[in-house]
Specification:
Elements lengths: L2 H27 L5 H24 L5 H9 L5 H25 L20 H24 L8 H16 L9 H11 L7 H26 L1
Helix pairs in contact: 1-2, 1-4, 1-7, 2-6, 3-4, 3-8, 4-7, 5-6, 5-8
Length: 224
């Protein structure tokens, strides 16, 4: 077992959840000081930084949905993939516990920055939106970080920007998690699980569809 890879995934996911959910909690605690733009930038910047920091160690999945996409397209072995997911969730859970200490005074309704459905958004609509947003994210990941023809040197920037523009569009509707770990960390600390299935079902569906389309059509089409 290459513990370095698992630790890198755990640290990167901790960072994403701590900064991302922390931005949501801080925004609620301090009179919307960040706004949706600030929250989107916080997520995008931390993901970009963690990709550049860990890409050469673990491949910088930082997301169980991404790891599942890699498993489905056989870019990673199942034992290693399961290890990635366990350590991603562990990093997310630790981040949630840190947030519970730091933002103890944040409004209870924000649930430590957990992603949640806005009023009037049904679970089915939430799943659909999370699937579409995650499709964009994983399609770009495969294009710039998996495909050998992609622009690997700017992969962190490209992927971070996708996270940013996805949150600008979907953040006010579902929180735009695109990542089960992002939803899981604050939920385990706050005890708020009401809409948790949305952030597993939607991202995994979107990630798998994007991965299969890119891997089966764009990559193999070039090989023929």
């Amino acid at each position: 077992m290459d513990f370095h890879k698992y630790l890198a995934e755990s640290i990167a996911t901790f960072s994403l959840v701590f900064i991302g959910a922390g931005a949501v909690a801080a925004n609620a605690a301090y009179n919307n000081a960040l706004g949706i733009v600030g929250i989107a930038l916080a997520h995008g910047l931390v993901l970009m930084s963690m990709i550049y920091a860990t890409r050469h160690i673990s491949g910088a999945h930082v997301n169980p949905a991404v790891t599942i996409a890699m498993l489905v397209t056989k870019k990673i072995q199942i034992e290693e993939g399961l290890g990635y997911i366990v350590f991603q969730l562990l990093g997310a859970a630790i981040a949630g516990l840190f947030l519970s200490s730091i933002f103890a005074g944040a409004p209870a309704s924000v649930h430590l920055g957990v992603t949640d459905l806005a009023a009037g958004v049904s679970p089915n609509t939430g799943i659909l939106l999370e699937a579409v947003l995650t499709f964009f994210l994983v399609f770009v990941i495969f294009a710039v970080a998996v495909d050998s023809r992609g622009l690997a040197d700017v992969s962190g920037l490209a992927i971070g920007l996708v996270l940013t523009f996805d949150i600008l569009v979907g953040g006010s509707l579902t929180g735009a998690a695109m990542n089960p770990a992002r939803a899981f960390g604050p939920a385990i600390a706050s005890g708020y699980w009401t809409t948790q299935p949305v952030y597993w079902i939607g991202p995994v569906i979107g990630a798998v569809i994007a991965a299969l389309i890119y891997d089966r059509i764009f990559v193999k089409k070039e090989v023929v």
